[in-house]
Design brief:
- The longest helix is centred in the first third of the chain and has 24 residues.
- The termini are far apart.
- The chain is built from one helix and five strands, in the order H-E-E-E-E-E.
- The chain has a three-stranded antiparallel β-sheet with strand order 3-4-5, with no helix packed on it. A two-stranded antiparallel sheet has the order 1-2.
- Strand 1 and strand 2 form a beta hairpin.
- The protein is an alpha+beta fold.
Length: 93
């Protein structure tokens, strides 16, 4: 009985290895997705969608500049979608 159980366990283990390898090499983004969506921070955005990026840029210890950049999902001539800057704002704090 031990031999049968051990043989069954080894068979299951051997069949799981190729499936696990296939999953680890599979891309989470489907083929052709760059022609349908723009991607940022793990999210997919449709054409003409906007995102606002904000950040603090320290110039010196007493002055810092806060920057906001507005990006738009734009379709290139080749059909791919890319982020294009629309405007940039800087404020001093």
């Amino acid at each position: 009985m031990k031999t049968l159980t051990l043989g069954l366990a080894l068979t299951l283990l051997a069949s799981a290895a190729p499936a696990q390898q296939l999953l680890s090499t599979a891309s989470p983004i489907p083929d052709g997705a760059e022609t349908r969506f723009c991607y940022y921070d793990g999210m997919a955005y449709s054409p003409d969608a906007f995102i606002l990026l904000t950040g603090d840029n320290t110039v010196t210890s007493t002055i810092s500049t806060r920057e906001e950049r507005l990006l738009r999902c734009h379709r290139n001539d080749d059909g791919s979608l890319v982020w294009k800057p629309q405007s940039t704002f800087q404020t001093n704090n």
